[in-house]
């Protein structure tokens, strides 16, 4: 089947016409008119005005209007493009060297193919190869063109995504500076408080000493005056007593002064922790700027390749310190590092697993977490909600540490979330919204009273939305147009996940099924697990490309891991 190729035509002062009126071009090459009719007998093109006299003079000629453009010859501009030699621009390709498998112009033959015995005229070879079909090549060319267009779109999206990540990272730097400022402010207040307390303590002691010295000085002054009068006027007996008491007083005051003279030498000095300055001076910044990369979507020839599972293992998902006896793993997120992040709604915790699915860390939240999706290789967003608080929380995961980042407050409960190139898709019970990573509401994509979970295809052209209580999954275009609807008895309240290669997986809490549907969202491809396989209330599913396995979160204390064949 021939593939229609749209002819390019540019409007404006520099317009290039694929087909020009031949008579008009012969009269004035600078005044070209677009052809409307082609005469096969004359092998000429005619505009609307010129076609009328031609039709009157040559009524028997075989002519074709634009509606029959498939009967027109290849446009001259396109023929010239194909026939032009890429080495000698002013020469046309006339020869073919089968020994070198090269198209050649006359200049190429003289320069590079004089000794070649397999040089033939293209016109001769074309007559001998009448059955040659270029449609398969055109198919490949069209597919390559589409792939290049996808790469261009992906590159442009990535540029926008980098700008968004720049703003987020810039905000995180400012937030860290505020945290450091708050810590330094606290340390400053602590040091000031300690300084003030020491000043009060020393001042109080010194004040007591000063008051004591003043009192002693007054006593001694009165005693000294009494002794002076006695020395001048008193009798010998009184002078004797005065002398002894004077000696006694001097000894007492000398002893007291010896004990308290050091008080007047008290000082206050601030000795700073030079380690703080030394440590800060060694740091190149508030953190490191890392150029990360995420795995590009795998472009499978067969995009609906069925996942084939074999065997399963169960791994513990509960901690002894959990607030509930039973876990509810509402989301599973596989990190590029190989670690796995679980959302335990009932215990209000995020749980971090290593590559062997051992719990190596946890992060407590003040409200219940719901869904999780990956934003960058080391950052996720988590939906959290209770009766009063609805928001999207950013969490950074580095090694085994989880750190809370910025948050996006919401006006409605968020039941599902997905991310693609800086766009957050938020399922919120009655509608599907699009947000930026900075929290700006872009638009309402789709509205329905039963919006439950959402996921996005690897290239972002499809959004999958499940409907709560209706057992349906909708496939939407980016503008919210419903492309398809799929329902099945195996679905009542499905959750949806899209693997990096584009496979669409669904799990259902009530029916206990894990199924796969096609990329178009029109038919079931496979049932991977059911209650007969030990499934019990699956509420989340994820494909772990690091271990080639499917992970299922359940309403129980274990996760199930299926190995993929």
Automatic annotation (TrEMBL):
Instruction: Give a yes or no for keyword Zinc in this entry.
Output: yes
Q: Does the keyword Transmembrane helix apply?
A: no
Query: Which terms does the record give in the GO molecular function aspect?
Result: zinc ion binding
UniProt keyword annotations, A-Z: Coiled coil, Metal-binding, Zinc, Zinc-finger
Q: Which residues form a coiled coil?
A: 177-204
Q: Sorted alphabetically, which PANTHER family does this protein's record hold? A: BONUS, ISOFORM C-RELATED (PTHR25462), MEIOTIC P26, ISOFORM F (PTHR25462:SF296)
The name this protein carries in UniProt is B box-type domain-containing protein
Q: Which organism is it from?
A: Dreissena polymorpha
- Lineage of the organism: Eukaryota, Metazoa, Spiralia, Lophotrochozoa, Mollusca
């Amino acid at each position: 089947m021939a593939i229609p190729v749209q002819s390019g035509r540019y409007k404006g002062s520099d317009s290039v016409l694929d087909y020009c009126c031949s008579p008009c071009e012969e009269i004035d090459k600078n005044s070209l008119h677009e052809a409307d009719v082609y005469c096969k007998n004359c092998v000429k093109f005619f505009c609307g005005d010129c076609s009328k006299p031609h039709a009157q003079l040559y009524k028997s000629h075989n002519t074709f209007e634009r509606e029959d453009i498939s009967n027109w010859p290849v446009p001259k501009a396109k023929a010239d493009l194909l026939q032009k030699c890429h080495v000698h621009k002013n020469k046309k390709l006339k020869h073919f060297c089968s020994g070198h498998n090269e198209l050649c112009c006359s200049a190429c033959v003289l320069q590079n193919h004089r000794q070649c015995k397999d040089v033939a005229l293209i016109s001769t070879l074309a007559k001998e190869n009448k059955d040659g079909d270029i449609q398969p090549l055109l198919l490949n060319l069209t597919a390559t063109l589409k792939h290049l267009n996808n790469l261009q779109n992906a590159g442009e999206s990535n540029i926008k995504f980098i700008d968004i990540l720049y703003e987020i990272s810039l905000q995180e730097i400012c937030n860290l500076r505020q945290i450091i400022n708050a810590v330094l402010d606290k340390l400053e207040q602590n040091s000031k408080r300690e300084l003030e307390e020491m000043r009060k303590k020393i001042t109080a002691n010194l004040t007591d000493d000063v008051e004591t010295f003043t009192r002693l000085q007054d006593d001694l002054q009165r005693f000294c005056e009494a002794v002076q009068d006695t020395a001048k006027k008193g009798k010998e007996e009184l002078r004797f007593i005065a002398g002894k008491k004077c000696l006694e007083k001097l000894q007492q005051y000398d002893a007291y002064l010896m004990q308290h003279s050091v008080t007047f030498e008290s000082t206050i000095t601030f000795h700073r922790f030079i380690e703080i300055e030394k440590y800060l001076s060694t740091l190149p910044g508030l953190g490191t700027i890392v150029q990360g990369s995420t795995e590009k979507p795998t472009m499978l020839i067969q995009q609906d390749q069925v996942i084939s599972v074999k065997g399963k293992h169960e791994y513990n998902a509960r901690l002894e310190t959990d607030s509930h006896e039973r876990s509810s793993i509402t989301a599973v997120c596989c990190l590029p590092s190989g670690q796995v992040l679980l959302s335990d709604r009932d215990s209000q915790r995020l749980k971090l697993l290593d590559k062997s699915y051992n719990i190596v860390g946890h992060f407590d939240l003040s409200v219940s977490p719901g869904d999780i999706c990956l934003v960058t290789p080391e950052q996720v967003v988590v939906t959290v909600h209770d009766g009063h608080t609805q928001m999207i929380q950013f969490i950074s995961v580095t090694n085994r540490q989880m750190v809370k980042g910025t948050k996006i407050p919401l006006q409605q409960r968020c039941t599902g979330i997905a991310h693609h190139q800086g766009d957050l898709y938020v399922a919120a019970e009655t509608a599907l919204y699009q947000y930026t990573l900075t929290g700006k509401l872009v638009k309402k994509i789709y509205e329905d009273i039963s919006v439950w979970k959402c996921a996005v295809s690897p290239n972002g052209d499809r959004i999958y939305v499940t409907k709560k209580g209706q057992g349906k999954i909708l496939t939407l275009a980016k503008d919210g147009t419903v492309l398809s609807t799929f329902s099945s008895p195996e679905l009542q309240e499905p959750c949806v996940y899209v693997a990096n290669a584009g496979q669409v997986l669904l799990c259902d809490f009530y029916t206990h099924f894990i199924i796969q549907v096609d990329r178009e969202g029109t038919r079931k491809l496979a049932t991977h697990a059911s209650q007969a396989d030990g499934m019990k209330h699956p509420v989340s599913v994820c494909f772990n490309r690091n271990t080639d396995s499917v992970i299922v979160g359940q309403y129980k204390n274990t996760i199930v891991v299926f190995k993929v064949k």
